[in-house]
Specification:
The chain is α/β, with parallel strands linked by helices and about 300 residues long. Helix content is about 25%, strand content about 25%. GO terms for molecular function: oxidoreductase activity.
């Protein structure tokens, strides 16, 4: 099979299109023919070696954890899926080796969920990691219909999905973004505020008593969070471990297929959408990673692997 691989840590230039063996399909596993994958910051951070202290990498490594595709075959004792099923997955395994920037990927079936019927392949590939991150943070924070929630980074891949999940739960949502993205946030159901100096004052103008919950999806926002958080408020971050010193929760997304199945239902209920910024062919995956590294892209960056 064709796959983008790297044999040493480095920048996107270390990626090359290679031929790799078809993945083995062990017990409890499914083999997925990949239609599309999405790019996440963790992909280039692993490739650069930033996560080497906590994650083993087996070279040559195929990057990519998000996947949308079709089940090709199933292993022994994998009863929940059949060949031909359309699926999505946040395919993070115990070590980095066989990722989704390839024609096929083998995954434990517990990581796999059925693809939302209302999404195309590219949009579906952008759902798993970002959607699960938002869902699990908001679930851990126990966001309720009576809550006012502040989301730092509302226009990003995680933040935009977080807004929609919280709105679907009935919460009032205030979200930060640059002014050019304020209409986008309004369309998702949030009240937009500009980030930067004076953020706390702008949030307090909308919520004079403070906000009940804060979800930080960008980092560098702790001072503003503490300034606007109501007494007994809850807060969490995916980008700043120092929140733990101030009563907050530092989180890392878990690859749970059942959670992803719930997100698929929200999509098919028309309560959750995925915005795609750019689509690249597999051979241009390095360019896709560079665009993600530059930041400031609204919506997901997708790598298209095989045709519809």
């Amino acid at each position: 099979m064709k796959a983008m691989t790297y044999s040493q840590y480095g920048s996107p230039e270390v990626l090359e299109l290679t031929e790799q063996p078809l993945p083995k399909v062990g017990p409890g596993m499914v083999l997925v023919k990949v239609k599309a994958a999405s790019v996440n910051p963790v992909d280039w951070k692993i490739m650069a070696g930033y996560l080497d202290p906590i994650m083993d990498v087996q070279f040559p490594a195929v990057p990519g954890w998000d996947v949308a595709g079709v089940v090709e075959s199933v292993g022994i004792d994998a009863p929940h899926f059949r060949p031909g099923d359309e699926v999505v997955s946040y395919g993070r395994k115990d070590f980095v080796h066989g990722g989704s920037f390839a024609e096929y990927i083998a995954l434990p079936e517990r990581l796999v969920a059925r693809k939302p019927q209302t999404l195309g392949w590219e949009e579906a590939a952008g759902l798993p990691l970002a959607g699960l991150t938002a869902y699990q943070v908001l679930t851990r924070l126990d966001v309720q219909p009576t809550d006012t929630l502040l989301i730092h980074g509302g226009a990003g891949g995680v933040g935009s999905l977080g807004i929609q999940i919280a709105v679907a739960a009935g919460a009032r949502v205030i979200a930060t973004a640059s002014e050019r993205n304020h209409d986008f946030l309004r369309a998702l159901g949030a009240e937009p505020v500009s980030y930067g100096e004076g953020l706390a004052e702008r949030v307090r103008a909308l919520a004079p008593g403070g906000v009940d919950v804060v979800a930080d999806f960008v980092g560098g926002t702790l001072d503003a969070t503490l300034a606007v958080l109501a007494p007994k408020g809850r807060h969490a971050s995916i980008a700043d471990d120092t929140v733990e010193q101030h009563g907050g929760t530092w989180m890392w997304v878990s690859p749970i297929g059942a959670d992803l199945e719930r997100l698929s239902h929200l999509v098919d209920e028309r309560r959750l959408t995925v915005e795609v910024a750019r689509v690249f062919p597999l051979e241009n995956a390095a360019e896709a990673l560079r665009l993600n590294m530059a930041g400031h892209t609204r919506g997901k960056i997708i790598v298209k692997i095989t045709g519809d």
